[in-house]
Design a protein that fits this description.
elongated; five-stranded mixed beta sheet; 2 domains; about 25% helix; Immunoglobulin-like; three-stranded antiparallel beta sheet; alpha+beta
């Protein structure tokens, strides 16, 4: 998610605002290398500073660790299953228009998207119909949507039959397609 405004703490934190070892080590090693080069340049302003190979290797390893950490945290959202929401003890039934469906998976709430303004951008595409994910507030956040589940109603605009379900996260990332069978009311 794009930050509302940049902060100095962003250099040492991940996208969710938590302290990040990968970010901190990258900033510290890079700052040390720049400071080392600046001191050498000040001592001999007429020539480019010679950096020791150990420092160059340290900077390269630091950048590789940072890149690996960023790639690991930027997981693409995925739908694992779509089920009809039903009360405990009720018999299993097919999905109908008007029913609530629960979409289970991972990565539905991107890092940094915990505010209502960001979460309202989360949309579920059922066939050709886009459904806004309703926000369900709870103590300290929201119970819908969460990073692993979303609950949305199946609108009457969805025609009966086999149809695709996809989630479009607040950051604009789109999940895989899962096919469900919607029966008429």
């Amino acid at each position: 998610m794009r930050a509302e405004r940049p902060r100095a703490a962003d250099l040492l934190c991940d996208d969710a605002g938590r302290g990040s070892l990968a970010d901190a080590q990258y900033v510290l090693v890079s700052a040390f290398a720049v400071l080392f080069a600046a001191v050498r340049l000040i001592r001999r302003p007429g020539e480019l500073p010679q950096l020791p190979w150990a420092l160059v290797i340290l900077v390269v390893l630091s950048a590789a660790a940072y890149l690996a950490a960023k790639c690991a945290e930027g997981v693409r959202p995925v739908i694992l299953s779509v089920v009809r929401v039903q009360e405990t003890g009720t018999p299993d039934a097919p999905i109908r228009t008007g029913d609530d469906i629960e979409i289970r998976g991972a990565g539905f709430v991107p890092p940094g998207a915990a505010t209502p303004a960001h979460l309202t951008r989360t949309v579920v595409r059922i066939g050709a119909v886009h459904v806004q994910v309703p926000l369900v507030p709870a103590q300290g956040g929201f119970t819908n949507p969460t990073d692993t589940t979303l609950t949305v109603p199946v609108p009457a605009d969805v025609p009966p039959g086999w149809t695709d379900v996809q989630v479009i996260t607040a950051s604009g990332a789109v999940t895989n397609r899962v096919v469900i069978d919607v029966t008429g009311s």
